[in-house]
Specification:
The chain has 488 residues and is an alpha/beta fold. Helix content is 39%, strand content 18%. The protein folds into two domains: 269 residues, 3-Layer(aba) Sandwich (Rossmann fold); 193 residues, Rossmann fold, CATH 3.40.50.2000. The longest helix is centred in the C-terminal third of the chain and has 23 residues.
């Protein structure tokens, strides 16, 4: 039976994007609607979003405490999914990053902003504001929406709730003074509710009060129940293990399709895999590297931060280029890593090239032109680039963690013989272990028959959102049952 789903998020592509949450918030609602559910996406009306809307209209104004908000309706570009924007100029009508100012620091009023958004979602979910449409279930995502399940728990009758953890490291922590300023019920200031080591945690609101919890891979669901990855919440998550499900994110199989990718100089597929070489040649030229089609080209795309393991790559750079291999990197992040990469380019200008920043088209061309894609992340709730790489026949070398372990089948002799190997993994978070994995991938690369077999196995993987949506649909029914039992 189809459900009416209100999908609450702080970002959605292409309206606003800072990371993978935006991609999930675009792909999953589309797939849910295609599966027969009636979906509304709701997010704050940031200044840049409003400025770039082609069609939108007001569907009502209502009070949230002392603040007045306007609900603006549009259609998520590239879909038929109705999208609601919660507009309040003081809270949201600012340009740039939705969470941080130009100095890279969090907006000082983030707690007030997302508390306002969450309360507005509750009013809409309860049918007390705006359109008459009422959801059967509210699907919340990450700390910015964590107060929604908590506030709905105070209602005598309410919709079911699901809360998805995209990255447990970001919890929405604020001091007790802020808690008091938000005028939240006293019951929420307790270590068994929102209090977290003397601070208020928006994330705990979702973890404690949602009927069902999800995260973005089965591996990450297990990892966050351990002290190493639980960010101090492993005990709580362990106590809710029966309600915690890991569901691997999907990818946009249309946007990321080497046979139709508008960003490539040469499209290709499983039947004409040799055409991939044209993209490698052009990528080397774009990065001002010598064209050597016999030398493996390794690509990286991502934030230049500790989580992504860029320090391990820097530690082994001299070794990697001496394999020999070439390396192209697209990303930005901590200045110390950016500067070290710039220095490495000066020392190895014929083997290493770096683009500091982000360019969507270039990201596609790296996925298509590289032979090997490197992802040595310290932790990775799901990861998208390894799935893009598999789709493009670019063999991933990954740290076997979280979603990377769930999506890449490592090239052991047995897996190669069985035809199921899709990449190379390493298990210890160690620079030498990573380098050994790269060496293993390069050895496979030199055996053209085995390499092509691995490429074809990789390209056959199905990471469509329809698979994820089917799993979420099952979860929604469980959440609805839990909510009925709780209210009853």
């Amino acid at each position: 039976m189809a459900k009416r789903i209100l999908f609450a998020t702080s970002e959605v592509y292409p309206l606003i994007k800072t990371g993978g949450l935006a991609d999930v918030s675009a792909g999953l609602p589309r797939a849910l609607q295609a599966a027969g559910h009636e979906v509304r996406v709701i997010l704050p009306a940031y200044g840049d979003v409003i400025d770039n809307l082609e069609q939108a209209y007001s569907v009502g104004r209502f009070k949230v405490g002392d603040a007045e908000v306007e609900l603006i309706e549009t259609i998520l570009p590239g879909s038929d999914v109705i999208t609601w924007l919660v507009s309040n100029k003081k809270a949201f009508a600012r340009s740039g990053n939705p969470y941080m100012n130009d100095d890279g620091n969090p907006w000082v009023d983030n707690a007030e902003r997302f508390h306002l958004f969450d309360k507005a979602v509750v009013e809409l979910a309860q049918g007390r504001a705006g359109p008459s449409w009422k959801p059967d279930l509210v699907h919340c995502n990450d700390w910015q929406t964590g107060l929604i399940p908590a506030l709905l728990s105070l209602e005598p009758v309410r919709p079911a709730t699901v809360f998805t953890i995209h990255n447990l490291a970001y919890q929405g922590l604020f001091d007790f003074e802020t808690f008091q300023q938000l005028d939240l019920p006293d019951v929420f200031w307790h270590h068994e509710t929102l209090e977290y080591f003397g601070q208020m945690s928006f994330m705990k609101g979702g973890l404690i009060y949602a009927d069902q919890l999800t995260t973005v891979s089965p591996g990450y669901a297990e990892e966050i129940q351990t002290p190493e990855f639980g960010c101090g919440l492993d005990g709580l998550l362990g106590s809710r293990s029966d309600s915690l499900t890991g569901i691997v994110n999907g990818i946009d199989m249309v946007e990321w399709n080497p046979a139709r990718d508008k960003h490539l100089v040469q499209v290709y597929g499983k039947l004409n895999l040799k055409q991939k070489l044209v993209n490698k040649t052009e990528l080397c030229r774009e990065f001002a590297l010598p064209v050597d089609t016999g030398m493996p080209l390794i690509g990286m795309v991502g934030r230049l931060v500790n989580q992504k393991g860029i320090d391990l790559v820097l530690e082994e750079l001299d070794q990697i280029v001496s394999i020999p291999a070439q390396l192209v990197i697209l990303g930005s992040g901590e200045s110390k890593y950016e500067n070290r990469l710039r220095e490495a380019v000066k020392s190895h200008s014929d083997r290493i090239s770096v683009y500091i920043g982000y360019d969507e088209g270039l990201a596609h061309r790296i996925e298509a032109g590289a032979d090997i894609f490197l992802m040595p992340s310290r932790f990775e709730p799901c990861g998208l680039n390894q799935m893009y790489s598999l789709r493009y026949g670019t063999i991933p070398v990954v740290h076997s963690i979280g979603g990377l372990a769930d999506t890449v089948v490592t090239a052991t002799p047995e897996n190669i013989q069985s035809g199921i190997a899709t990449g190379v993994t390493f298990y210890e978070l160690d620079a030498e272990e990573m380098y050994a994995a790269i060496r293993h991938a390069v050895a496979l690369y030199k055996n053209k028959a085995i390499w092509k077999q691995i490429q074809l196995a990789a390209m056959r993987q199905d990471f469509s959102w329809s698979k994820s949506a089917a799993e979420y649909s099952k979860l929604y029914y469980r959440a609805k049952d839990d909510a009925v039992m709780e209210v009853g």
